[in-house]
Design brief:
heterodimer, A: 253 residues, alpha/beta, 8 strands, B: two-stranded antiparallel ribbon
């Protein structure tokens, strides 16, 4: 059978979600953000919530997230996405509200907003992309940077004496009574992507069921910031990041 | 026995040549174009051995830019 005979709409197995538009993404080649955007778009589409979803974009690499997924968006000041999401969800409880934040946004400048939004148990979803580095500004050290990892601002490797320890913020959020679902996922293989999608779907359903705050942490790569090829970055993540940030559900009630 | 045949279509203008689909493919169907580049200057991925494709869509799942569309059909 010829390839042309296979390419027919009835044989379609996988394609880019409709909600994701054709704007070329500004992310570096191999960036995990693209996959996570795609998953968010797929889940929203499958739930039929295209018209009822409001995303809150962060400051960081994902600052232009609103250019790529065709839903309503609000841009937040650096780190303040959970505060904005709180307001949106309280004023419009029938909307599905989520924030999309990186580790610099959520775990550094926005720690207070994150912890208090989770402690209040706001019915929002927080998608937390943890790549252990500030990607947008050129690869500086983040609170989540691993010990010994070299970045632009710790060129000899992060040391606990000078820089403290890697911040496991999801583990902190597990202790708060307001959170209902805290999970850590990754997107380096097809199997991991499918698992992450399931977790994301559950988080979105929890938010509409009014169970509390759901946090989906995605351990991801920053090939440019880590100065590796995308494939090397994935391997490095599996070997090093998963030791510090083990995958799995941390809390599920 | 029914055989499954797949086909991969790459949106070459959207592709950034990150290589992730090629690593994810279990039967080594995809490859980066060795010479040609797209408008952005990237060596894009293409179906180098289209006859081997099993339509598993692993390439599509891992593609960060959503450039890959996968089709699958059962052949008796």
């Amino acid at each position: 059978m010829n390839t042309i005979d296979i390419i027919k709409p009835e044989n379609l197995v996988y394609t880019k979600p409709k909600l994701m538009n054709d704007n070329p993404m500004h992310y570096c080649p191999g960036c995990s953000h693209g996959v996570i955007h795609k998953l968010a778009a797929e889940v929203i589409e499958e739930m039929g919530m295209e018209d009822k979803t409001i995303g809150v974009a962060p400051v960081g690499c994902a600052v232009f997230a609103y250019n790529y997924i065709d839903i309503d968006w609000q841009e937040a000041a650096h780190g303040r996405a959970p505060a904005i999401a709180t307001a949106i969800k309280r004023l419009m409880p029938d909307k599905m509200v989520f924030t999309y934040q990186g580790d610099g946004d959520l775990a550094a400048i926005g720690t207070a907003e994150t912890i208090h939004a989770c402690n209040r148990g706001e019915n929002i979803v927080i998608i937390f992309v943890n790549n252990a580095i500030y990607g947008m500004t050129g690869g500086q050290m983040a609170p989540t940077t691993l010990q010994g990892m070299k970045t632009a601002t710790c060129p000899y490797g992060r040391t606990p004496e000078l820089n403290g320890y890697p911040l496991k913020i999801s583990d902190l959020l597990v202790k708060l009574e307001g959170t209902c679902y805290v999970t850590r996922q990754s997107v380096q293989t097809a199997a991991a992507v499918k698992k992450a999608k399931k977790a994301l779907r559950k988080a979105f359903e929890n938010s509409m069921a009014g169970k509390g705050t759901s946090i989906v942490e995605v351990v991801s790569t920053c090939a440019s910031g880590w100065k590796m090829t995308p494939d090397q970055a994935n391997k490095w993540m599996v070997e090093n990041m998963f030791v510090q940030y083990p995958l799995g559900d941390l809390k599920d009630i | 026995m029914a055989k499954i045949k797949g086909a991969v279509v790459v949106n070459t203008e959207r592709c950034k040549g990150c290589d992730l689909c090629i690593v994810a493919c279990p039967v080594d169907v995809l490859a980066l174009e060795p010479k040609e580049v797209n408008d952005k200057g990237y060596h894009y991925a293409y179906s180098a051995k289209p006859d081997d494709c099993i339509g598993c869509a692993n390439c599509g799942y891992v593609c960060p830019d959503g450039c890959i569309t996968v089709y699958k059909v059962k052949v008796d």
